Amino acid sequence: MIIMPIKEGENIERALKKFKRKYEKTGVLKQLRARQHFTKPSVSKRKAKLHAIYVQQMQQNEE
Question: What predicted TM-score, i.e. pTM, was given to this entire model?
Fold first, then answer.
């Protein structure tokens, strides 16, 4: 559960923005979407490997 302490006289829009940021950082929505369908372990490993290759190439290009 996310608890957002709100100060006296704080703007509602600002508090809502803080809440949305905090909610997004927890990763609840991302986890919910991932659980909607099953991905085989081999597919997830392949995806992770491709991402690692991409990141490594980007780092090499910066140097």
Answer: 0.52
No. of H helices and E strands in the chain? 3, 0
CA 26 → CA 2, 21, 30, 38, 44, distances in Å?
9, 9, 9, 21, 21
Structural domain that includes position 32 = 12-62
* pLDDT for the residue numbered 48: 97
User: Is 29 contained in some domain?
Assistant: yes
- Which of 1, 2, 29 has the alpha carbon at shortest distance from 15? 2
Q: Which residues contact 26 (CB under 8 A, 6 or more apart)?
A: 2
Domain total in the chain = 1
Question: What is the C-alpha separation between 58 and 55, in angstroms, rounded?
Answer: 5
Q: Which residues does the chain have with pLDDT short of 70?
A: none
